[in-house]
C-alpha cells in the first residue's frame, strides 16, 4: 500500500495502553505540554508521536490538539472499553465508524441526547481509510472477534445493565469509553483523520469494575497489536 500518512499520532488513556509503544518506538525526542508527556520517534520506520492522555474527555481533547500542533497527519487511539452490543465478549475489538458524546444532554432545551447545541455535527465520523486499515489488521490478528460501530464517550465509568441497554438501544452504541468522542471532535475541528480501536475490558455491567481490573492488561495488548500491524501498512 502507498504511504498516505507521514507522521502518526497515537494516544492511549492509561499507562497499560501505551506501555508497548515505550518498548518498541525508537525514540528521538520527548516533550511536555499541559502536563502531558509526548514521545517522538519511529515505529517500523514511520514517524510517530505518542502520549498517555489520562482518563476522560478533557484530557483527550487537550492532547489531541497538542499532537495536531506537533504536526501529526492522523490520530489513532488504542485502548479498552466496556461492551454495549450484546454480541461482544470481553477481549473482542471495536473499530470506530463514528464517535458521539453520550453525556452531552441538552434535552430540556429540545435537543436530542448526544447533540451539541448550535453545531451541525455531533457524531464525528472516523476516517474510512483508517477504519479499513484497522479492519484488515483485525481480520489477520483476531478473525471473528471484531466489529465496526459507533463508540459512545462520556465522563462516566458505565457499570449498569440498564445504562448499557439505554446506550445500545437509544444511541445505537457498540461500546462505551471516556475519550474517543473528544478526540474525534478535535480531529474534526482540525480536519485530521482519526480512528479509535478499543478492546473490550468489561461489559459495562455490575461486574465491570472487577472485569476491568482483570482484563485491562490483555485487552491493551490486543489493541496495541492492531496499531502495530496498521503502522506497517500505512
Ligand atoms: N485506571 C483507573 C481508571 C480507569 S477509568 C483505574 O483503574 O481505576 C476506565 C478507562 O477505561 C477509561 O479510559 C475508559 O475509556 C475505559 N473504559 C473501560 N471500560 C469502561 C466502562 N465500562 N465505562 C467507561 N469507560 C470504560
UniProtKB/TrEMBL annotation:
<dbReference type="Pfam" id="PF01048">
    <property type="entry name" value="PNP_UDP_1"/>
</dbReference>
<dbReference type="InterPro" id="IPR010049">
    <property type="entry name" value="MTA_SAH_Nsdase"/>
</dbReference>
<keyword id="KW-0028">Amino-acid biosynthesis</keyword>
<keyword id="KW-0378">Hydrolase</keyword>
<comment type="pathway">
    <text>Amino-acid biosynthesis; L-methionine biosynthesis via salvage pathway; S-methyl-5-thio-alpha-D-ribose 1-phosphate from S-methyl-5'-thioadenosine (hydrolase route): step 1/2.</text>
</comment>
<dbReference type="InterPro" id="IPR000845">
    <property type="entry name" value="Nucleoside_phosphorylase_d"/>
</dbReference>
<dbReference type="GO" id="GO:0008782">
    <property type="term" value="F:adenosylhomocysteine nucleosidase activity"/>
</dbReference>
<protein>
    <recommendedName>
        <fullName>adenosylhomocysteine nucleosidase</fullName>
        <ecNumber>3.2.2.9</ecNumber>
    </recommendedName>
</protein>
<dbReference type="InterPro" id="IPR035994">
    <property type="entry name" value="Nucleoside_phosphorylase_sf"/>
</dbReference>
<keyword id="KW-0486">Methionine biosynthesis</keyword>
<feature type="domain" description="Nucleoside phosphorylase">
    <location>
        <begin position="7"/>
        <end position="231"/>
    </location>
</feature>
<keyword id="KW-0326">Glycosidase</keyword>
Amino acid at each position: 500500500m502507498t504511504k498516505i500518512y507521514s507522521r502518526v499520532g497515537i494516544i492511549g488513556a492509561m499507562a497499560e495502553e501505551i506501555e508497548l509503544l515505550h518498548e518498541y518506538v525508537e525514540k528521538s525526542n520527548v516533550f511536555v505540554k499541559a502536563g502531558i508527556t509526548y514521545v517522538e520517534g519511529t515505529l517500523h520506520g514511520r514517524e510517530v508521536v505518542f502520549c498517555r492522555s489520562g482518563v476522560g474527555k478533557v484530557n483527550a481533547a487537550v492532547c489531541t490538539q497538542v499532537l495536531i500542533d506537533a504536526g501529526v497527519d492522523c490520530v489513532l487511539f488504542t485502548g479498552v472499553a466496556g461492551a454495549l452490543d450484546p454480541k461482544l465478549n470481553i477481549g473482542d475489538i471495536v473499530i470506530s465508524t463514528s464517535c458521539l458524546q453520550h453525556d452531552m444532554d441538552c434535552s430540556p432545551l429540545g435537543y436530542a441526547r448526544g447533540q451539541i447545541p448550535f453545531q451541525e455535527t455531533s457524531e464525528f465520523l472516523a476516517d474510512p481509510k483508517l477504519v479499513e486499515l484497522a479492519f484488515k489488521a483485525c481480520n489477520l490478528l483476531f478473525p471473528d472477534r471484531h466489529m465496526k460501530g459507533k463508540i459512545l464517550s462520556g465522563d462516566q465509568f458505565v457499570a449498569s445493565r440498564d445504562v448499557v441497554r439505554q446506550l445500545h438501544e437509544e444511541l445505537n452504541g457498540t461500546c462505551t469509553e471516556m475519550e474517543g468522542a473528544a478526540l474525534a471532535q478535535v480531529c474534526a475541528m482540525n480536519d485530521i483523520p482519526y480512528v479509535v480501536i478499543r478492546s473490550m475490558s468489561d461489559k459495562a455491567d455490575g461486574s465491570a469494575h472487577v472485569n476491568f481490573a482483570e482484563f485491562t492488561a490483555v485487552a491493551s495488548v490486543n489493541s496495541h497489536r492492531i496499531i502495530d500491524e496498521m503502522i506497517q501498512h500505512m
